[in-house]
Amino acid sequence: MTKLNKLNTFALTLLITGAIDSIRNLPASALFGSTLIFFFVFSAIVFLIPSALVSAELTANVDEGGIYQWARLAFGERIGFLAVWLQWINNLVWFPTILSFIAGTAAYLIDPALAQNKYYMVGIILSLFWLLTLVNLRGVRVSAKFTSFCAVTGLIIPMILIISLLIIWLAMGKPLQIELTRATLFPSWQHTDNWMALTAVMLGFAGMELASVHIKDVNNAQKTFPRALAFSSLIILATMMLGSLAIAFVLPADKINLVNGTIQTFAYFLSAYHLTWLIPVLTILLVIGSLGGVISWVISPVKGLGQAARHGFLPPFFEKHNRHGVPQNLLITQAVLVSAVCLAFLFLPSVNASYWLLTALTTQLYMLMYVIMFLSGLRLRHKLRYTGDTFVIPGKQAGAWIVCLLGLIGCAITLLVGFIPPNNINIGSSARYEILFCSGIGIMLLPILFFYWYQNSTVLTAPPLEEPELESI
């Protein structure tokens, strides 16, 4: 890419913002009322910014990017496979949550009560995911322009609208469900369940390492990326925090629905302003925007596993591609596993409980991957020679240590609070939640032992990836 065609600060800011910002996560954050402001700021400091800086440095200085390659170079093939497995399996659990958001939003076109019908939710989720899988199996690719259109339609327009409606609501002196006072802004240390908000917020900020793949296409990356990072972080923080507050201000906590809370809030706002005719329009926009985001993710997570398969971690069965060049067996296996995960909606007493369980599982798995990424960042700082014209974390070795330690602290706190059952969601007994939660994590991690054994018992037939030359700084 020539210098003239490289990304500038504005273009890179849009790319990073589009990769992270999501209106889907707003209801989960809104559940925790005024304390969500503290959690958004805290999460930005200990996770959003550190993950962006570390992934940018690794992408800029390792020829073949991605978490598998970073962890492999830092700690060996097995840790590399563990990292990419966590990245893939967390997406496996994530799919039902994003599809349940689509199903819950679409219910407003028929009957809003359907969003609390477990059988409706499971049926729509399975139908949508298998449809998207079949589309990808035929090699149909969605153009970049269509994907951008979906992002604008389903994210930017609704996000601007919900924040604007909140400003009008406040200006008109309408009743508020929460108060912003010194006593309510900070979570109580005596009530640890308040810290459950961190799970939703951290998941909303996850994925910055995916946006950093553009670092090599950036003009004057050493200055452009930090500026774009600062702008995008502020945009993400502001829009997600204000969007969550819009829901928390208007709806009582016990009335917030995790799968259709966004359109629920829009409906409340628009009814108050006598603009109910806009509700179906917004519903369609949110559904289109969400589907546009899911399409590319159906096939994207399997690419990392395909890389690991070249090192013998997966049987040849999973390397098979169809005539369209699509890894069909991995895609079909993924669809079967997503279908099994969806059954969580049938084993918990409410759709909200199922949604939260899957959100908490996704966050735990993703945080484990980020632990490996931050440790890999520190390790590779001592192994790779970074040239002066690539992006590096400011502050030399001390800066890298501070950033990585902040990220590790954020991950550790999130992992700990993930085991605390929320008290404002009907999850049944705490014991049942803990059993399902711990069993879910165990089931997701157990296959790793099999793949380690499988790699040990087979002889690699494919040539190994070339190792970049490692030198000390």
From TrEMBL:
Signal peptide: none annotated. It holds the Pfam family AA_permease_2. Its main location: membrane. Keywords: Cell membrane, Membrane, Transmembrane, Transmembrane helix, Transport. One of its GO terms (molecular function) is transmembrane transporter activity. It is a multi-pass membrane protein. Gene3D superfamilies: Amino acid/polyamine transporter I (1.20.1740.10). Coiled coil: none annotated. The keyword Membrane applies. It is found in: Cell membrane. One of its GO terms (cellular component) is plasma membrane. The chain crosses the membrane at residues 29-49, 88-107, 119-137, 149-172, 195-216, 228-251, 277-300, 330-349, 355-378, 399-421, 433-454. This is Putative glutamate/gamma-aminobutyrate antiporter. It comes from Aquicella siphonis. The gene is gadC.
